[in-house]
Specification:
Blueprint lengths: L16 H4 L1 H5 L5 E2 L11 H12 L10 H15 L8 E4 L2 H12 L5 E4 L6 H8 L3 E4 L3 E4 L4 E6 L2 H8 L4 E7 L11 H14 L2 E5 L26 E5 L13 E4 L3 H13 L7 H13 L1 H25 L13 E5 L7 H12 L1 E2 L1 E2 L10 E5 L4 H14 L1
């Protein structure tokens, strides 16, 4: 039975980074782009309608954040995640990446340490370094190194304790669910993180932008805030951008229960004259959280089928490559180390011989060496072509 997600949406010549930057990134336009973390699906119709309705008003001036915007977010997280957010905790933000940058400046001084857990989303590194703070790496480890199952990771909590005990450590940047390895952290793991943060007075900045993107057959996401106490130093970053495929609209939110920490973040934003309220971002944000639920549920069923197809196809048709089913996100972490290529050679192989454009694992930190990140947020026919090209190249 055909799905609406089976029908391709042409994205070339729309100034799409994913499609129209192929020449700049890969040196050729002759690659299937399965890299940037947005999906090739039309956003929920309610989002498109809300944007069109706002466009009918011919003045696009400076705009306030309406109460209805906050309420849509509060209602969504209460319903979907059993998380009760108070209105005054919410600080609107111009995206999760700017928020991570701002958090480094708000909660750590120049030269102080910020803990990250590679392989991890590249802006975790750049946000720390560009703000003049110091990266402290707490690498993830395979769940069972003895069996070679490198697709399923766990936190090294003993090493995290050592990192947190450093006199310069101030912040832990947590990626939950994790990009790129696809882990949905368990309550036990998250509780241990909170315990370590309490003992060493760390501010935990929890990037939970993928919180809605967990598969029906895997554990549900637990908001770290649901395990935290009132005295925990916690900043939660969320957005509808990944959930409803509208990252270009740019609007996100921070939930910061503590008034002083909220003020510190607001001060950083104001020092850069951020955020500037975009009327279209506001319309899309509210429409997604108010009306996007059924679309999201259908999406996750489709993505699960895509995920299972890739796992089976890699296992049966792509010798030298291994992959495990992620628990969340629409990203898959391909272990290509058995191909015997260095990272530059690996990228050349996929681009020049297979004609497939993915994110090199090394861009997620040294533990990503030998891996590639595949975006499965696309029609099945695209993934079939990707697998076919890689199989032919191998």
């Amino acid at each position: 039975m055909s799905s609406p997600f089976d029908h391709p949406v042409r994205r070339e010549h729309t100034c799409s980074v994913k499609f129209d930057a192929r020449k700049a990134v890969f040196g050729t336009e002759d690659v299937i782009p399965v890299w940037v973390a947005d999906m090739d699906f039309a956003a929920p119709e309610a989002v498109t309608q809300a944007l069109a309705e706002r466009a009918k008003h011919p003045v696009y001036g400076y705009t306030l954040f309406p109460d209805s915007l906050y309420q849509s977010m509060i209602d969504w997280f209460a319903s979907r995640h059993a998380w009760e957010i108070q209105r005054e905790w919410i600080l609107m933000a111009p995206g999760v990446v700017p928020s991570i940058n701002a958090a480094c400046m708000a909660y750590a001084g120049p030269g102080e340490g910020v803990i990250i857990q590679p392989p991890v989303y590249p802006p975790f590194f750049s946000s720390v370094r560009h703000s003049g703070r110091v990266v402290i790496e707490n690498p993830l480890v395979p769940e069972d190194p003895d069996t070679g199952d490198t697709g399923h990771y766990r936190m090294d909590l003993d090493h995290l304790e050592q990192c947190a005990a450093r006199p310069d450590a101030r912040i832990l940047l947590l990626c939950s669910p994790h990009n790129p390895v696809g882990r949905v952290w368990s309550e036990e793991e998250l509780g241990a993180v909170l315990d370590i943060a309490r003992r060493h007075q760390l501010v935990v900045v929890s990037d939970e932008i993928h919180c809605d993107l967990t598969f029906p057959d895997k554990p549900r996401h637990t908001m770290l805030a649901n395990l935290a106490g009132p005295d925990d130093a916690l900043v939660t970053a969320v957005a509808p951008s990944k959930s409803f495929n509208m990252p270009g609209l740019g609007l996100s939110a921070l939930v910061i229960p503590d008034a002083d920490r909220r003020k510190a973040m607001k001060t950083v934003f104001e020092s850069m004259h951020l955020p500037q309220c975009n009327p279209f971002s506001i319309a899309g944000f509210e429409a997604g959280y108010r009306h996007g639920g059924p679309w999201l549920d259908d999406l996750m069923v489709y993505l699960q089928a895509n995920r299972d197809y890739v796992v089976e196809a890699v296992g049966q048709r792509l010798p030298g490559i291994r992959v495990s089913a992620p628990e969340g996100t629409y990203l898959m972490w391909l272990d290509c180390r058995e191909l015997g290529l260095d990272d530059a050679g690996l990228k050349r192989f996929f681009v020049r011989q297979a004609g497939v454009g993915m994110n090199p694992g090394i861009s997620f930190g040294d533990p990503g060496s030998g891996f590639m990140r595949l975006n499965i947020g696309c029609p099945r026919s695209v993934l079939e072509e990707v697998v076919g090209r890689i199989e032919a190249a191998l």
